Amino acid sequence: MSRDKRVYRFGTDGRGGDATEGSAEMRYILGGKGANLAEMARIGLPVPPGFTITCQTCVEYAQAGDVWPEGALEEVAAAERDLEQRYGKRLGDAADPLLVSVRSGAPFSMPGMMDTVLNLGLNDESVRGLIAQTDNPRFAWDSYRRFIQMFSDVVLGVDADLFENALTARRLLAGVRTDAELSAEDLEALVGEFKAIFSDHVSAKDHPELVVDGAVAFPADPALQLRLAIQAVFGSWMNERAILYRQRNGIPDDLGTAVNVQVMVFGNKGDTSATGVAFTRNPADGTREFYGDFLVNAQGEDVVAGIRNTEPISDLASKPGLESAGAELERYFSVLENHYRDMCDIEFTIEQGSLWMLQTRVGKRTAGAALRIAIDMVGEGLITREEAVSRIDPAQLDQLLHPQFDTAARPDVIARGLNASPGAAVGAIVFSSDDAVERAQRGEPVILVRWETNPDDLKGMVAAEGILTSHGGKTSHAAVIARGMGTPCVCGVEAFRIDAAAKEVRIAGSDLVLHEGDVISIDGATGVVAAGAVPLVSAELTGDLGTILGWADDIRLAPDAGRPAHVRVNADNPEDARLALEFGAEAIGLCRTEHMFLGERKSIIQTFILSDDDTERAGALDELLRVQTEDFASMMRTMDGRPMVIRLIDPPLHEFLDSPRELDVAIARLEAAGGDPERVRALRDRLRRIDAMSEANPMLGLRGVRLSVIFGDLPLMQVRAIAEAAARLIAEGLDPRPEIMVPLVAITEEHVQMRELIERVLREVGAERGVALDIPVGTMVELPRACLVAGSIAAHADFFCFGTNDLTQTTFGFSRDDAEAKFIPAYLHRKILAANPFETVDDAVLELVRTAVDKARAVNPGMHFGVCGEHGGDPASIVRFLNEAGVDYVSCSPYRVPQARLAAAHAVLARTRG
Ligand code: PEP
Ligand code: MG
Known about the structure:
alpha/beta, Dna Ligase, domain 1, D-amino Acid Aminotransferase, Chain A, domain 1, 8-stranded parallel β-barrel, binds phosphoenolpyruvate
């Protein structure tokens, strides 16, 4: 029976050649570290020899309940013997011992999450050999005590403090302050003490293999040491922090980690030895310079631990005794960059003047550095523009467009919520929109803290630096509006127990109570809420971003791109439209007209809805017509010559009315205070009307096109306003391009009747103004039924735009306002869902979109298709909509336009590269 190879060799074959079996392409088999070690050895860089046990072995070991797969142990033993032969030394040898490191290495970098054991192979015999070889007893005993300490902690879970306490006691006894001052004799004594700690704290019952002469002893047999260390690394794949890290970073649990067993080299063998980490370019700003640190006479973990002050890598080649290794390293920087065609991150050790490469990988970098490096590499002829564009992660662009917490800061985190709108903000807590406005007017930055927001909160949201809600998900009112405004927002912070009346909030799980005026900081990119003012670093729109986005536009709009990938914006006011044009939006994909009825205009629409008096209602409607005409005219002016999709009124009407709960309280208060009975009666009457309009399921109620069918005057007014505005601009010689969209259509006839009404008004206004108004009428497709009857609707529609927020809500039957706070996190945790469907489009929702596009195109080949739900700004969803569902454009909030342009280019690149 053929079985997959479990162990791959790398490095010297012991006869002047190379025994390497793997390569950089094998990261899913050898892990990132193992694959890159193999690659470096293959291209002739000095890599200490070793072997890599595959990720699949780890997976099988874990699946079998921590049992080695058949034959695997034998393969490892053979690889160990082979390594001894290749390197010419034996593990445990009393004269000249081989020592190895045992390190994890998953397919994706998981820094510090899994386990490592160094100096493996030391025992009471081999420590003598190490002394003989190095003529340095202090170094040998120090290595041995470090090994026992690390092995005990990592492999057997012995409390690390026990060893630290013994070290402290030994320092006191020796009368020294630092470990470095301990003598060889001190360290030899510590080895004895450490072994005793080991024997006292490891259970014989759990580890019978460690029992010698009836008692637990530190394992002397290097083969046993190695097996236990490999098992510990396998086990660390499933430790709590590794699981959490994978969850946060979307790394699948079933990949497993490889284990790299590699000959140890020592950077702590005197002044011609050193160890360090380096980047081939500056990972913070992308400058082409050597970047990193080294330490003379030290081991790798000393650099990372920050115990000693490191020296800059640029000084290495001028350091006495290290000149030649330093110059060699600089040469390898270019070798690696040319080979990987990217900025590399390197770990190295110099052992008595000889340079050894211990790790390399494509280096992580900030968003700004990513842009700089990609552009420079195009200039250097190393990569193409297409490669440069494909290397920038669209999600990273958020970093450049919004302020962030300073990475040097240590925020005092008091709660976490959903990362609803990126950017960080600091301000005094306020619990009402009025307070937000009042304090903001006094120049005080504020964070608006609400149970959830409603359209009435707009003024407070505009005034606030940031928004926090204790309820609601990423498509809740607060989230959608905040993203639209580019205001940082954390929503669904369930630990916030808000008492808006008392102007205080209790933080569940702690004694903390915050009051109005207390300063907090929020990070809308991570969902973190911190006490006090966390220092922020502000964003810059650099020229590099413009360059990369320009290249992205060339790719996504190229004539040979197949179907060009357009990017529009969701904007409801001229400011957002202007901002979006600066960010590179080509058109408006969604103008939510109901947002134009807020602020001072709310009372006008309230009069229209609640009044019994026809004249009063007609007056309100006239007033709405006047203000909407002005709104549309000013937006069309901003968007001159560009399409602008205007959606007829959509949300349930009661969103414009006072909250019945608050009104009830106000009436009770008025009565208790002996208020004017006439006024009480009027308020009661108002409350009755509002109650009469309330619905059990408003999201499934009188909204969207249904509203226009029942309150026919509203769409008549809106269409007239659009037509009047367009006619006015045409008369001025401008080129307005409104398109009218009917929301929440489920039944073809809804669309047909609405279209008749729209066209009648357009004809009327056209005739009155003496202009031809050729305004397309389309459907907002956001219900599964509409997708299934798309062919029939398409016969009457000029375009479709998919409202994937509602489509997700109605496909799943998940409330978009509640699900993300209530159960989606649990679903993600239990892997019932792989991703939040309100954030990244779900397969079934995508299938509905694709079905609708196919059916509609078959009937009406001239139609165009867009997506304007929140998914239209999500990079992963954008690629799928454009490539799998065949839509022509995505539309998103202004601040997400840059990343949408980049993601759209990625879609076209994925398509054209097959
Ligand atoms: C949608 O449902 O996806 C949409 C864009 O409309 P709204 O969010 O206004 O319901
Ligand atoms: Mg909708």
